[in-house]
Amino acid sequence: MAYKAKFLTPAEGGLGAATVATSGKLLTGNGTNWVASTPTFPTGSATSGKFLQSDGTNWIASTPTFPTTAGTSGKMLVSNGTNWVSSTPTFPNASATAGKLIVSDGTNWVASTPTYPNASATTRKILVSDGTNFVASTETWSNPGTSGNLLSSDGTNWVTTVTPSVTSITLSAGTALNKYVVGTFTPALNFGGAAVGITYSSQNGQYTQIGNTIFFTFVLDMTSKGSSVGAATITGFPVTSGTHGNNCMAPFVMQRLTLTTNYTVALFQMGNSSTTASLFQQGSGQAFATLTDTNFASNTTIFCEGFYHTA
Predict the structure, then answer these.
(1) Could you tell me if 127 and 117 are in contact, meaning their C-beta atoms sit under 8 angstroms apart?
(2) 168 pLDDT exceeds 70?
(3) Which neighbouring-strand residues pair with 204?
(4) Mean of the pLDDT values across residues 13-26?
(5) C-alpha span between 213 and 309 (Å, rounded)
(6) Domains in the chain: how many in total?
(7) C-alpha distance from residue 32 to each of 1, 13, 35 (Å)
(8) How does pLDDT run across 100-152, given as a tens digit for each residue?
(9) Dihedral through CA 219, CA 223, CA 224, CA 225, nearest 10?
(10) pTM for the full model?
(11) Dihedrals φ, ψ of 132, to 5°?
(12) Domain housing 135
């Protein structure tokens, strides 16, 4: 006797699909029957190393590839910018001692030799080495304070200390020593209040102000004395002198400066309430005489140091 095979339709109580499904559909159970899946799945071969991933509607082959062979023990998956590949360095693949960190040995990532605290410490503790491991410090450290403050030990902990600051020192005579300044200035030679054509190879000055006293030094090394004429003065001092500025006089060293007959010393004298000084010459039995352009050459050099008062 011959038998014929027949699939029953769903109407006949069978499991066969009643209609042809969209390409890429799978049969899935709906709890009662087998029906065509809502999402589709790839119907062709994918590139080696691709995974199935959802695009939000269907399952598609992943864009990046993944390794298709077992990696070396301790390797991790990392992106090379296009695909996921096995990492070059290895990572520890076994449990480490409590308190260890992962550090690089120059080739791979390994468990650190020292341990580190793995529990919370008291506020403001820091990590210090005990010679083998890093541990929480015994002492605490103060939080940052006002800019310029310092840390000092109170015998147990490090605490914020206000930076020492001197605003005024009152001397026995009652004068306030309340300023200390170090700086530079640019001196300039004038003849008759002008400096037409005067040039220098060196023209610089330095000063220190302590309270109301200005200590200075300067050099003027001329390469041309220009065309201005008249009394010689030095301008450009950094702080205005006091009302008795001309009490401050000092000799200065000069090269290629021609003094008048019977005069042997060149002198600097600060002006009153001024940033300009006058230049004089003196000799035995002679009155002070003003230096002028006629005493200077185009290659005259002046070296001078001294002090004056602001009040």
Answers:
(1) yes
(2) no
(3) 219
(4) 67
(5) 5
(6) 2
(7) 36, 12, 9
(8) 889 999 999 998 889 988 888 778 888 889 899 988 888 887 776 667 677 77
(9) 20
(10) 0.48
(11) -130, -50
(12) 104-161
